[in-house]
Specification:
With about 475 residues, the protein is α/β, with parallel strands linked by helices. Strand 9, helix 11 and strand 10 form a beta-alpha-beta unit. It starts with a helix and ends with a helix.
């Protein structure tokens, strides 16, 4: 079999691409090189593991790395390549997943076994009995699942008792990469993997994407099926989705993960559309509505919020140069958070409500539904004249690690909790059940900021097409983050 490896690696191009350069290629391009036998799956995995060894001590992205499993998968992929087996759309591509997504045999987070940074892989951790639906589909597409990424909460909490091991932002190691899908976002931004899979219940795909300068996609709830057999729960509007550096990679992952399965009783039953078919159609003739803060967002403003809004507003109105119409909407929506607390207390079977004191929430369930209805009708009014809505993703850039922890514990924030400040512009679309993406569009104080593109249910293809049009014309950065240049 060594001869087969030499055959794959001797075709020339692999030796002409430096290891670091290869790590910045999108997954779809790496897959093309593998299919052409210009580079081998073994070499890709070895380079990925090498970057983990080099960079993870700095960014703390990974909870568990399956070195042997990744190498075994790569060796099998190389045998399949040499023997002419059919190649899936992610053939040979290393992928990581958030640590609460089950990978058979690997330690993972569940409410039955809270992890600690110094016990990863120990008997105190849960071990997944089977692959999740997402991992099944990734494997079928040929992806090589290399491990799990750290899912911290806000600052010091049961997941990370000490800030020392909190994930760090590749753009500045003194700063966080966001919350929840933090390790995954840091990994993609640092060029370790081109794709990671995260989850989004209040912006936890989109916010880390914005803070790390990458693409994050929150699909329509139910579009990507999921069942957790060890910790069954229902979190309203929570989704799984890709974080990538390239929009085509995000569309490719959506194509693989989306569509009914039969095991998820809350999944969307209709087949998923082709997310790559219209990806390069551009935005000419489309109409977008821009909002600074949805009206209610002013109360959650932090010192740098005006600067973030200015940068993203300028980026949004640049769509006019691409042939789209962009209007500033004067519509104002109502603060969603009291309604979220009331509806979570009434309907969720998850532990989400443990974050809040529902007894102090002044809204009744009836009032919560009325607010939901009024906000829904206001969005319908805007969408009657526009194809998509655009806003800032996060209202602030990635804080320093200590400030992140202080924000999480600040009782003087609106509603006496950090979550509505964290998810000001994002969580409303989890509650409504509408898809949204974050794409990078600039910097404030040398840290990335993101633009959020919002659509109605099952408009993922239009959102991806719009994201592609923007980043194809206005690439985010020609240079990788500082930690990846070290």
């Amino acid at each position: 079999m060594a001869g087969a490896t030499e055959e794959v690696q001797s075709r020339g191009l692999a030796s002409s691409i430096a290891g670091d350069e290869l790590c910045w290629l999108p997954a779809w391009r790496i897959r093309e090189l593998i299919a052409a036998r210009d580079i081998s799956p073994v070499e890709i995995v070895d380079r990925t593991l090498s970057r983990i060894e080099q960079l993870d001590p700095l960014i703390h992205a990974f909870r568990f790395v399956d070195v042997k499993g990744a190498k075994d998968q790569a060796a099998q992929a190389e045998r399949d390549l040499v023997h002419g087996e059919a190649l899936g759309p992610l053939f040979g591509i290393p992928i990581s997943v958030k640590e609460h997504i089950a990978i058979k045999g690997m330690p993972y987070w569940s409410t039955n076994s809270l992890p600690h940074a110094d016990t990863a892989g120990s008997p105190d951790w849960g071990r997944a009995r089977r692959d999740s639906i997402l991992v099944e589909r990734l494997r079928k597409a040929g992806a090589i699942v290399i491990g799990t990424t750290i899912m911290p909460g806000f600052g010091t909490d049961p997941f990370l008792p000490e800030l020392t091991n909190h994930p760090r932002n590749p753009w500045n190691l003194e700063h966080v990469p966001g919350g929840s899908t933090a390790g995954g976002a840091a990994s993609v931004a640092a060029g370790i993997t081109s794709i990671t899979i995260g989850s989004d219940g209040a912006g936890s795909i989109r916010e880390p994407a914005a803070m790390c300068g990458i693409v994050g996609f929150h699909p329509t709830p139910g579009r990507i099926p999921s069942v957790d057999y060890d910790t069954p729960s229902v979190v309203r509007g929570s989704t799984f989705g890709p974080l990538t550096r390239d929009v085509r990679d995000a569309a490719l992952v959506m194509q693989i993960l989306a569509g009914p399965d039969g095991r998820d009783p809350f999944e969307i039953q209709t087949p998923a559309p082709n997310y790559t078919l219209s990806l390069d159609d551009g935005v000419r003739g489309l109409r977008f509505a821009w909002t600074d803060d949805f009206g209610f967002g002013k109360r959650y403003s932090l010192p740098e919020t005006p600067a973030v809004i200015d940068v993203v507003r300028k980026a949004a109105f640049a769509f006019r140069e691409l042939g789209a119409a962009v209007d500033h909407t004067s519509m104002e929506w109502e603060d969603y958070f009291p309604s979220f607390v009331a509806m979570t207390a009434a309907y969720d079977t998850s532990t989400t409500i443990a974050y809040f004191n529902a007894s102090q929430n002044p809204q009744s369930l009836e009032e919560a539904h009325e607010v939901y209805s009024r906000n829904w009708h206001r969005f319908q009014q805007v969408f009657s004249a526009h194809d998509l809505i655009i806003s800032p993703t996060s209202t602030f850039t990635a804080p320093e690690v200590g400030e992140w922890d202080r924000l999480a514990k600040n009782p003087d924030l609106p509603h006496n909790h950090f979550m509505p400040t964290y998810g000001t512009n994002m969580q409303l679309f989890n509650i409504l059940g509408w898809p949204a993406a974050s794409i990078p569009c600039g910097f404030v104080n040398d840290m990335p900021v993101g633009m959020q593109i919002i659509g109605r249910p099952e408009q993922e293809a239009l959102i991806l097409r719009t994201a592609r049009a923007y980043l194809a014309t206005y690439p985010f950065s020609e240079r990788p983050p500082p930690v990846a240049r070290a």
